[in-house]
Design goal:
Layout lengths: L3 E6 L3 H17 L6 E3 L6 E5 L3 E6 L1 H7 L1 H4 L27
Parallel strand pairs: 1-4
Antiparallel strand pairs: 2-3, 3-4
Length: about 100
């Protein structure tokens, strides 16, 4: 089991693939390696397993259909805007839905 599950919505197949590509390249530059990636070819739902952190990048329809938000509903949630990140990691401004 992982310590963290990250759920990200990409609004189209190219958007999901672009999000995956950016996460992969940024974390690779920091020396992180994921043990497994699934779904990059279809871009419907990409799963990136970094052992302690599992990242899901889904199109809206996939996110609604699989309802991972409901599956993980009882897990504590973090406000990513309050996390301390390495200086090397450049993230765009993120709007947090309330």
């Amino acid at each position: 089991m992982a310590d963290y599950f990250v759920l990200i919505t990409g609004h189209s197949r190219p958007h999901v693939k672009a999000i995956y590509g950016e996460i992969h390249s940024q974390l690779k530059a920091l020396g992180e390696k994921h043990s497994k990636t699934e779904g990059t070819d279809l871009g419907w739902w990409v799963l990136m397993d970094y052992v302690d952190v599992v990242i899901h990048v889904l199109q809206p329809e996939a996110r609604e259909y699989y309802d991972l938000d409901g599956l993980y509903a009882e897990c504590p949630q973090l406000d990513i805007s309050k996390l301390a990140l390495p200086a090397e990691l450049e993230l765009p401004a993120v709007k947090i839905a309330e």
